[in-house]
Amino acid sequence: MNLSVLLAAIVFWLAAWAFNEWLVRRKFVNPAADRAARIAVPLIFGATILVLWEGIVRGFNVPSVLLPPPSMIWVRLINSVPTLWADFRQTFLKSVLVGYALGCGLGFLVAILIDRSPFLQKGLLPLGNFVSALPVIGVAPIMVMWFGFDWQSKVAVVVIMTFFPMLVNTVSGLAATSHMERDLMRTYAADWFQTLVKLRLPAAWPFIFNALKINSTLALIGAIVAEFFGTPIVGMGFRISTEVGRMNVDMVWAEIAVAAVAGSAFYGVVALIERIVTFWHPSVRGGQA
Amino acid sequence: MEQASFLRDRLLPIGTVLLALLALWYVFVVVLNAPFERDQAARAGGTIGFMELLPKTMAQERPVLPAPHQVFAELWDTTVNKAITSKRSLVYHSWITLSATLLGFSMGAVLGVLLAIGIVHNRAMDRSLMPWVIASQTIPILAIAPMIIVVLNAVGISGLMPKALISTYLSFFPVVVGMVKGLRSPEQIQLDLMHTYNASPAQTFWKLRWPASMPYLFTSLKVAVAISLVGAIVGELPTGAVAGLGARLLAGSYYGQTVQIWAALFMAAAVAALLVIIVGIAHTRVLKRMGART
């Protein structure tokens, strides 16, 4: 046991914790400083976790097969950029992005198509809600059988996973306008299409973006898990399952780090677009989210 | 306002859509399985007419897409006709998955509620933990599942616990988010009223915040229970296909047993529906006892 490393980590943890408490309680006059403090608090927390992780692993001499320290993962990450990039391109750029675009687009289109038929809405909505609660990921083996080992089968899984959240959210978003507003459009003699584009779609954006955000994480999960069922020799899911078998745990963690960064960035981009598109929404203009 | 009618608003539309899907399924069965039959006929040196081909596409041993009645026959065969303790019984596999789901779900719910209480009562925790709770979900945890299983196996923890841990990780998030919202849902006037009663923080919590958060809790529990089933199923994939619904899926895909895959899929759907319904019933029960109108 390496006591000094462990002690140093614990001291760092306590100091960071105290600093965070102090930072949260302090009132800043300067708005820029206040914003910096808001961003700094979670960052310090994240750094603390990494330091504690490193300290505990080194302090207790945990074998790196079980849990490699962050520094080791970082070294591995830097050393195998080409492999990671190939996996990223196969899984993220091909499977995830294509499937996400297709699934969300289809969900949106179907929602618009059934918009004029209350009968179909009543029939499809409960089913859509139901399917959203199902372990859709289970269709992965079937899709691999139908569409082959390459990225097309992963796209199919992602399409199925993202379709229903999009459909359900868009339909409820299109129903979000009140009678008053729709009556106003009627007094303007607006037809169905004009009402849709000028009133109901803008009102539905928050719902649609909610689905887009949910789907951004679902898509990545779907693509990676689908790769467990068969894939060419490239891809994040493939790399994770084979490197686990070879006990190269640091490589697995490097892949996970890439997946985490990609997933967070994807989510962040969608959230950013949401802020631009729905600039009028109370949760964006300030006040409570 | 119009009177809501069960027949007109529920049964008829949903039934129509389901029937349409079923019809579509049969059409696809014929379209997808026909090439194989034509192949067989060509190999035998002849051609096959459509009327001959039709029944054959529905009774293949390893169809590309099994017909619905084949799936239900398999379901019936593996649930009713097999002893529950048999390894070929789907009930046995469902139970394995379900026990991991329930364990993980309860741990996730408790962890989520505790984290939410901490976040609501401590500003440093709120500011530093909340962004990471959200970020933790953008990490595709399901991807880590095989590693968690293998690593825990190496330490000597195997069986139920690793799968349950994955379920826990997946299910704590909706609970945290929902409960933070719920515990913050009492308005300032209500909090002020508790203050004028000279209520201690614990009393404010148990008599105001906790009851006010119940609707939020159950809504997130529904999401959490569904997602923890997904976690348990995926957790079974890398264990080398021993037991459980995930193992059935994997074994089916290895040996091309499409009917078995579809049966496992429908069983998983049934289990998910059952779990969500149970949480829904608990939801209405609790709300009723709290005096809410339905």
What does this structure look like?
The complex is a heterodimer of chains A (289) and B (294). Chain A has helices spanning 3-25, 31-59, 70-79, 81-113, 118-132, 140-147, 151-174, 179-187, 192-227, 236-245, 249-277, 282-285. Chain A is mostly helical and 289 residues long. Chain A folds into two domains: 3-62; 76-285, MetI-like (MetI-like fold, Orthogonal Bundle). In chain A, α1 runs antiparallel to α2 and α5 (118-132) packs across α7. The relative contact order of chain A is 0.10. The model of chain A has no long low-confidence stretch (mean pLDDT 83). By secondary structure, chain B is mainly α. Chain B folds into two domains: 6-61; 90-289, MetI-like fold. Helix content of chain B is 79%, strand content 0%. Chain B contains eleven helices and no strands. In chain B, α1 packs across α2, α4 (90-121) packs parallel to α7 and α6 packs across α7 (160-183). The model of chain B has no long low-confidence stretch (mean pLDDT 80). At the A-B interface, α1, α2, α5, α6 and α9 of A face α1, α5, α6, α9 and α10 of B.
Strands, helices and their partners?
The complex is a heterodimer of chains A (289) and B (294).
Chain A: H1 3-25, H2 31-59, H3 70-79, H4 81-113, H5 118-132, H6 140-147, H7 151-174, H8 179-187, H9 192-227, H10 236-245, H11 249-277, H12 282-285
Helix pairs in contact in A: 1-2, 3-11, 4-7, 4-9, 5-7, 6-7, 7-9, 9-11, 10-11
Chain B: H1 6-43, H2 50-57, H3 68-79, H4 90-121, H5 123-138, H6 141-155, H7 160-183, H8 188-196, H9 201-236, H10 245-255, H11 258-289
